[in-house]
Structures are given as structure tokens and as C-alpha cells.
UniProtKB/TrEMBL annotation:
Protein known as: tRNA (Adenine(22)-N(1))-methyltransferase TrmK
InterPro entries: SAM-dependent_MTases_sf (IPR029063), TrmK (IPR006901)
One Pfam family recorded for the sequence: TrmK
Top-level taxon of the source organism: Bacteria
Organism: Bacillus spongiae
């Protein structure tokens, strides 16, 4: 992967960036995504934000190598602190856990005007993001689920809008993904079912406590939701 050829995962993230947007890519690593969409003319300005000095330097070198420093600003900082309020209207956060993405959004809420499109690609725990979006009046407008190199990823796209109410199943599985239930969706949740059932089997030999009972109840609820949807 490089600035010329993104991974399929990042290609799908890029596909949801509006043409002409001003982009902030948070956790940009080598700045491949912002450099790619600048070179393709999808956006005319981008910020590559990175909290770790090593990747920040790598991103700066990449931007300078491609002579894109006029269009891609590389900034060192945590989460959304690298942007000014109203400076961008599209934000991508990819390749992190859903809980971390949620904390970045929560800690950076003061930087959001509500005019942005959020394009979020969690590696795990997309449910955390969906719950945050609902709680903060952001509406899901699209979702995708893809497989690449043996790993499955979800892409969530949200815009500020009327607060949506989702069922437990929709929060866990994704309302748009549930509507299509493609092969990758079925593969992901079939695997999760197997994992949960193994965890339950292991719990049978553990000392019973209130915490364990609560965990069992939580897992059984998720199993019931997924089995109903897959069947």
C-alpha cells in the first residue's frame, strides 16, 4: 500500500469522502489516504493528524516526497485537537478499535460544527460507535462490510441529523448491513457465534458469581440476536 494504491479497506473509506471536501484524517500514519485523495482531485485540502512522533515524521516525509505540502498539512496532536472548529467538513478515522474512535469523537466534540461527514472504520466494536452516534444526534447514512487479507472490517458513515432510534440488533449488527446480509456479514457473525458459544462452554467450569451471570446473560442475548438474523 502507498499513496498511489490504497488498501481495499482505505479505498472504501475514501469512496465516502465528498468531492471538494476539506478532509481531516485522524491517525493518518503515513498520510497515504489524504495524499491519495488529493492526487485524485477528490479533495482540495487535507489534514493528516498523528499523535505518535514516529508516524508523524513518516507522514511529513511522505507529503514532502510527493510535493503536496501545500495541500496536505501534517499535524502532531491527539485526535481532533489537530483541527480548528469549522476547518474541515469531512473526517476519517480508520484502523482503530471502535472504543478508541468513540473516545476520540467524545473528547473532540467541541471541534465539531455538525456540518461534517464522519467516515469511521473500526477494526472491532462498531457497536460502540453506533451508540455514540445515537447519543450525540448523528445519523448513520451508509455502512459497508468488507474482507481483506483474512480480516473483516466495517465502514460507518454518519452526518449530523435527526436522532435515530435503533434496536439492540441494529446497534450490534448495523441497520444497513442487516438489510443486505451479504456473504462477508454472514461470515463475520457466524465466526462470532462460534466464539461466544466457546466462551459460554468455558464459563460452565468457572465459579458462579453475579458478574459471571451478567456476562452469560449478555452473551446469550447476543447469540439470540445473531442466530435470529442469520436464520
Amino acid at each position: 500500500m502507498n499513496a498511489e494504491k490504497l488498501s481495499n479497506r482505505l479505498e472504501r473509506v475514501a469512496a465516502f469522502i465528498p468531492h471538494g471536501a476539506r478532509l481531516a484524517d485522524i491517525g493518518s500514519d503515513h498520510a497515504y489516504l489524504p495524499c491519495n485523495v488529493i492526487k485524485k482531485g477528490i479533495v482540495n485540502f487535507a489534514i493528516a493528524g498523528e499523535v505518535v512522533p514516529g508516524p508523524y515524521q513518516s507522514a511529513k516525509q511522505q507529503v514532502e516526497l510527493l510535493q503536496l505540502a501545500e495541500f496536505v498539512h501534517v499535524r502532531l496532536g491527539s485526535g481532533l485537537e489537530v483541527i480548528e472548529k469549522g476547518e474541515v467538513n469531512a473526517i476519517t478515522i480508520a484502523g482503530m478499535g471502535g472504543t478508541l474512535i468513540t473516545s476520540i469523537l467524545e473528547e473532540g466534540k467541541s471541534k465539531l460544527t455538525g456540518e461534517e461527514r464522519l467516515i469511521l472504520q473500526p477494526n472491532i466494536s462498531a457497536i460502540s460507535i453506533r451508540k455514540w452516534l445515537v447519543a450525540n444526534d448523528w445519523a448513520l447514512v451508509a455502512e459497508e462490510i468488507i474482507e481483506e487479507d483474512g480480516k473483516i472490517y466495517e465502514v460507518l458513515v454518519a452526518e449530523r441529523g435527526k436522532s435515530q432510534r435503533y434496536s439492540e440488533a441494529e446497534l450490534l449488527l448495523g441497520p444497513f448491513l442487516m438489510a443486505h446480509k451479504n456473504e462477508v456479514f454472514r461470515k463475520k457473525w457466524t465466526f462470532e457465534l462460534t466464539q461466544w458459544k466457546q466462551i459460554l462452554a468455558n464459563m460452565m467450569s468457572a465459579v458462579d458469581t453475579d458478574a459471571l451471570q451478567n456476562k452469560k446473560t449478555e452473551i446469550l442475548k447476543k447469540i439470540a440476536i445473531v442466530e435470529e438474523e442469520l436464520n
